[in-house]
Design goal:
Layout lengths: L1 E6 L6 H10 L4 H8 L7 E10 L2 E10 L8 H10 L4 H22 L14 H16 L4 E4 L2 E2 L4 E4 L2 E4 L3 H6 L5 E2 L10 H10 L2 E2 L5 E10 L10 E9 L8 E11 L5 H12 L4 E9 L3 E10 L4 H11 L6 E8 L3 E8 L2 E10 L2 E7 L1 H11 L3 H13 L6
Parallel strand pairs: 1-4, 4-9, 5-8
Antiparallel strand pairs: 1-11, 2-3, 6-7, 10-11, 12-14, 12-15, 13-14, 16-17, 17-18
Length: about 400
Amino acid sequence: MKLAYFDCFSGISGDMTLGAVVDAGCPLDALRGGLEGLQVPGWSLTSEKVWKNGMSATYVRVTTEDQSKHRGLAAILEILEKSRLSSGVRSRAANIFRKLGEAEASVHDVPLEKIHFHEVGAVDAIVDIVGACIGFEALGVESFASSALNVGGGTAKMAHGVLPVPAPATAKLLQGKPTYSNGVQKELVTPTGAAIVATLCEHFGPQPPMSVSAIGYGAGTLDLEGQPNVVRIMLGEAAEKVVPGFDEEIAVIEANLDDMNPQIYGYFLEKALAGGALDVYTTPVQMKKNRPGTLLTVLCRPADANPLISLIFAETTTFGVRTYRAQRRTLPRESVNVHTAYGDVRIKLSRVNGRILHVAPEFEDCRKLAVEKNVPLQRVLSEALRSYEAGGKTS
């Protein structure tokens, strides 16, 4: 499977993506020919090699006669629908614009059909997005992944005035994705660039196992101190199937406890799990002044971190917490029912690339049956596994 990995160490934009696609081997004439299928006049495409802080990259310039800045989503989708683009390019580009429209609608609190793009509605932005999709198809890319995104900082002047970086639409598009800033006071990730990776990428984090066959560097328009304003795209065969949702970024919250009544822990655990925690556990630790203590650890999605920190302060005796981000890899799960002499039990399965790795009876189902039938819990667990292995599935 052909994989494209976006290395966004210095951000990403539409023109940077287009430059990286050309730099990775897509001929400029192929882009021009494909873009003519848009049937939108008044644009031209050129490319040149440029130097960005000692790094060679390709800059693709889109020149247009169109001064319109306020196309609506419906108008752009109509252009795509009436185009002579391939169905794959048309579908990818439409999905990117829809994703962008949904973000803008959420930020401005208006219905999706009333959204009018400003900078992104101009022909040059349409050419950037559609051109990138044409390039990906020409290069045979089937799957996409991205690094954490360096969004920059400070403020940027936009159609609605001076706004913080990342722009509201960019922040919405990248919600739940790994982002950071290395202190550069510039807008490094544009809404167009954010929409491309948010729509296409199934995996965010370190580079997945892959055999790299081509590398492209796409240049932006900024001149930054100490780093090149480029995005790198690495193309190659994935070493293993990339399963959507296989990796995700989580927040880890920790607190040291040495003076809390242990009875409170069970109450806190229930409230934390109800509040969105993925897992809650404790570890014995030896604290300062040679006192035994407990390390409380809560795993959660980044969006749930602040409410759970408030819960920790409200329900435990700690005076402080620590937080950091981590990558979590989980196996895809499914469930089947099996029939036993004591009743039906759900069986949890994990499967990767069609191969079953783990089989486990659902504990609560077995516990309920053990109580109802007045039999040992271990007997119900064993009977459920035997029934599964014998093919006794009910659904």
